[in-house]
Design brief:
alpha+beta, 10 strands, 24% strand, 6 helices
């Protein structure tokens, strides 16, 4: 009956949501001059793992958009392939990049259909999208397994996302921030929410989306750049801690 199908759809969506909740952490921050995506790397301690064939965590979707995923990797591969196909078809037809929200909405329509069609199950993956278009400029979106999506100034999905979102609410400036501040904030949030003793470049991957002239640049930071960024954050955190100690001792 129809009620039974609805119940099964709700249960399936909840199950896929649990898969997302146990996945590697992904966070995104919207800056005034760009967008940052930062993701947790897992299985980096396995010496038998061939890193040249490692699973992607940040996917390029075209010239003006990219995404990160949290959840079942095989489902993520299907959805990112669909996203790339949608973007390429639009560009082939209209000779310009697809608007970011239209791209997100198109794949969310697919995700929503899978929650209510018999014989199918919802995709067990949430996505963070970063992109740029001429209408809205830099944008950050999040979508969940049910097909719901929304635009955000900062967002997090995956393991410990609640703690990360709470920290983002405290630290994110209402008036916005520049790309450098967004990068340091991403490192700070990951350092305080990931289940690791010390943050290092082999534990995280960071990508930025910026504009240079009339081109959109999507850059994945090298391990060297990531290590330098972590060092800057740790130096700043130590400076703040020293100032607090000096203030308390003077009292």
């Amino acid at each position: 009956c129809k009620c039974s199908n609805i119940t099964k759809a709700v249960v399936s969506t909840q199950s896929t949501g649990e898969a997302v909740g146990h996945a590697a952490t992904c966070l995104g921050i919207l800056a005034n001059d760009g967008v940052v995506l930062a993701v947790e790397r897992r299985n980096t301690t396995n010496s038998l793992l061939d890193e040249s064939f490692g699973a992607e965590k940040i996917y390029r979707l075209g010239g003006d958009a990219a995404c990160s995923v949290a959840g079942i990797t095989s489902d993520a591969n299907v959805l990112t392939s669909q996203l790339r196909l949608i973007a390429q078809r639009y560009e082939f037809t209209y000779q310009e990049s697809i608007p970011v929200e239209q791209l997100v909405r198109s794949v969310c329509d697919v995700k929503q259909r899978y929650t209510q069609t018999g014989g199918l199950r919802p995709f067990g993956v949430s996505l963070l999208y970063m992109g740029w278009d001429s209408r809205y400029g830099f944008q950050l979106y999040q979508s969940d397994p049910s097909g719901n999506y929304g635009g955000w100034k900062a967002a997090c999905i995956g393991h410990n996302h609640a703690a990360a979102v709470s920290l983002l609410k405290q630290e994110f400036k209402e008036e916005g921030c520049n790309l450098k501040d967004a990068l340091l904030l991403a490192v700070k949030v990951l350092s305080k929410t990931l289940d690791i003793n010390k943050l290092s470049a082999d534990k995280i991957q960071i990508a930025t989306l910026t504009r240079e002239g009339d081109r959109t640049l999507i850059k994945v930071l090298s391990d060297g750049d990531t290590t330098k960024l972590i060092g800057e954050y740790e130096a700043e955190a130590k400076k703040v801690e020293d100032e607090k100690k000096a203030g308390s001792s003077s009292k």
